[in-house]
Hints:
Number of strands: 7
Distance between the termini: 45 Å
Order of helices and strands: HHHHEHEEEHEHEE
Radius of gyration: 18 Å
Helix content: 25-40%
Largest sheet: 7 strands, mixed
Amino acid sequence: MLDITPQECRQRIEEFLIEHSEGYTEKEKHYIMNNAALITRPGKKNYGSSILRQIYDAIGLIPDNENIYLGFIELIEKHFSLDGDIVEVAGGIIPSLATKIALRQKTGTITVYDPRVIVPTNQPTNLILKRQRFSKDTPISSPDILLGFMPCDAAIPIIESACHNNIDFMIALCEGGIRKGYEWLETDDEWLSYVKHLASRGISKKKMGSLEVESLEKFDYHYPVIYNKRK
């Protein structure tokens, strides 16, 4: 049980929003405050949407064993290395994942692309923020790996850029968001199948190994994590 009352939780989130007011729309602030105490409810943990989960993480309310950002980092370290130059696409308003990676890196940098990203408190010097949308044509200086953590439809440019530039990648997929330009993929299964096919085809064409799948099921997350495994 989280050792914080609903009132304390709302107060801490309200203080966070006051400090970072420019990062959120009025509609988002309304949603956040209406659901601020979600984390204090008993039973299975529910951290709400990514916009709320990032705030919970930023103010230290998610236990390590329930923190899906740490779970994703474990998968990265299982198959790749954090010590190198990393690019994360669609990192969110708060660069939760990238900040944690930056603090763990012994060498290298992590660069985050998101048009709405805000500067975190005590930003690590090896964390580079690019407040812009990422596309397959975005110039990148040969990073060691491209990452996407629930990047919605940005999974497509991540895969296209990774395969075009022969760069390793790992993506925790989600339902694809609004799937702009891909609305014809009407169901989650259709979207996921298309993304996997695109990745598999690109990996094969560039001889980047094979498409592999991992899981974050222990965090109650039911979408696949895909990555390339070189032979």
